[in-house]
Specification:
The chain is mainly alpha-helical and 461 residues long. It is 72% helix and 0% strand. The longest helix is centred in the last third of the chain and has 32 residues, at 340-371. It is flat, with a radius of gyration of 33 Å. It starts with 21 loop residues before the first helix and ends in a 5-residue tail after the last helix.
Length: 461
């Protein structure tokens, strides 16, 4: 009997995979569209009133309506697929809303609004071609930059991006103003020198006015001008300067070159917003300077662990301190690239290394004191007793790795406060040496307390 005909396999479910239900196919198409906007949602760094927020919200809301309109025909598999698609879209809508209304994002906006108020008050001189700003304005802008630098992002991309955008604009304003302050109030060349000088002087006046316009644009306080128009105006100035005949006069050529360089600086500032959106400059994790700082910190942690766990620490004091001082030198060489966040990261790294050096210095002083037998004032002895306690507490603080809600943080803070009170109770009885020792001990206790705060404030670049 020939079984070749009867043993042929019949149709299997896998053969019907191409015949997917139209509703399932439609849901997959919608999910694909939703997935395409997810990176924009996760990286959204603006506010709820921004055009981009409304655009993304509109896209996602539309997709929710599309999902809701899919007919399930009472089938459980389609109902589950529709539910999953709706949940994913709703998750992105919620993420978008949270990005725009995050407390730290609103904190950045509040600080930025303070900077806007400062600019509105001080911008008038620039529109008339002047370059005079008050010291209060310069200090106010510096304070804004410092506060923005310390806003926590928790590693959240949208917050890091928002902080980068805001700092970039405020720092650009600071740089423009500093550049103006450094300049001489009078024009460099007399118009009698050559007919071309009058044209360069006229362009230079327009450049000074353009600075005011640019500052207003960067800070969002000028709704009448656009970046594109200002860019065209500045480019036109360069074209006019290039067309001038300077008759081979080097002093006029140099003067023209300086004005062109000023215009190019302003054009570069106009590109800041586009640059921030098209690059990952806000992600300092891959920044060369930050990588150097992290390398130093990694080595510092290795030295700290070795020191705190050594059976006989005094044998390591000299070598550890020498290497730590070398690490300080490496941090001094790190370029901050005019970036306040990199500057802050370097400052914190220096404090980390310097605190470990101070810990070794105190340990060495306490070791030397053990072998010295001499008469001393009771108050001086009391100060050294507190320093011994501070040394032990500092060792714990160096090992601490938590936040300000941890019980251990509260305990260490209380111990340091207790030592400060003990120092306050020491009566030097007019002994100058004791007064100086107590003053140094108080400063040390305060520095350890500040270091504990720095370790637990959860700041990141």
């Amino acid at each position: 009997m020939d079984t070749s005909q009867t043993c042929e396999p019949g149709p299997t479910p896998s053969m019907d995979m191409g015949n997917q239900h139209p509703s399932i196919s439609r849901l997959q198409e919608i999910q694909k569209e939703v997935k395409s906007v997810e990176p924009q949602v996760l990286g959204f760094s603006g506010l709820a009133e921004d055009k981009n927020y409304k655009r993304l919200e509109r896209i996602l809301t539309k997709q929710l309506f599309e999902i809701d309109s899919v007919d399930t025909e009472g089938r459980g598999d389609i109902q589950q697929a529709r539910k999953r698609a709706a949940q994913e879209t709703e998750r992105l809508l919620k993420e978008l809303e949270q990005n725009a209304s995050h407390p730290h994002r609103l904190e950045m906006e509040s600080i930025f609004q303070e900077a806007q108020a400062l600019v509105k008050e001080e911008i008038a001189p620039f529109y008339s071609g002047g370059s005079c700003v008050s010291s209060e304005f310069e200090e106010g802008i510096q304070d804004v930059i410092l506060r923005l630098t310390h806003v926590k992002t928790g590693g959240k991309v949208s917050l890091r991006k928002a902080r980068y955008h805001t700092l970039t604009r405020v720092c650009a304003v600071q740089e423009i103003i500093e550049d103006c302050v450094k300049r001489q109030p009078s024009l460099p060349l007399s118009e009698d020198t050559h007919p071309s000088v009058a044209k360069i002087n006229a362009v230079m006046c327009e450049v000074n006015k353009a600075r005011g316009t640019l500052i207003a644009l960067l800070m969002g306080v000028n709704s009448e001008e656009t970046c594109r128009h200002l860019s065209c105006v500045l480019s036109g100035m360069i074209a006019d300067l290039d067309a001038l005949d300077v008759c081979g006069r080097s002093e006029i050529r140099n003067y023209r070159r300086e004005v062109v360089e000023d215009i190019n600086k302003l054009l570069k500032c106009l590109d800041l917003e586009e640059e921030a959106d098209t690059t990952h400059a806000f992600d300092l994790g891959q920044n060369h300077s930050i990588l150097k700082i992290e390398t130093v910190l990694q080595r510092m942690r290795e030295i700290k662990t070795e020191l705190l766990q050594a059976p006989n620490p005094p044998e390591l004091y000299l070598s550890c301190k020498t290497e730590l001082q070398g690490l300080i030198g490496q941090l001094d060489e790190v370029s901050v690239e005019k970036n306040p966040c990199i500057r802050e990261a370097r400052r914190r790294a220096v404090i980390e290394v310097q605190t470990l050096i101070t810990y070794i210095d105190l340990k060495e002083a306490l070791e030397k004191r053990k072998v010295l037998v001499c008469e001393e004032h009771p108050s001086h002895r009391a100060v050294w007793g507190v320093l011994g306690h501070l040394s032990e507490i500092q060792g714990e603080v160096l090992s601490f790795d938590g936040n300000r809600t941890d019980k251990n943080y509260i305990r260490l803070e209380e111990l340091l406060t207790k030592q400060l009170l003990a120092l306050d109770a020491v009566d030097p009885q007019g002994e100058e040496r004791c007064k100086a020792a107590r003053k140094q001990a108080v400063k040390l206790a305060q520095n350890i307390l500040s270091y504990l705060d720095l370790k637990s404030d959860e700041w990141e670049y």
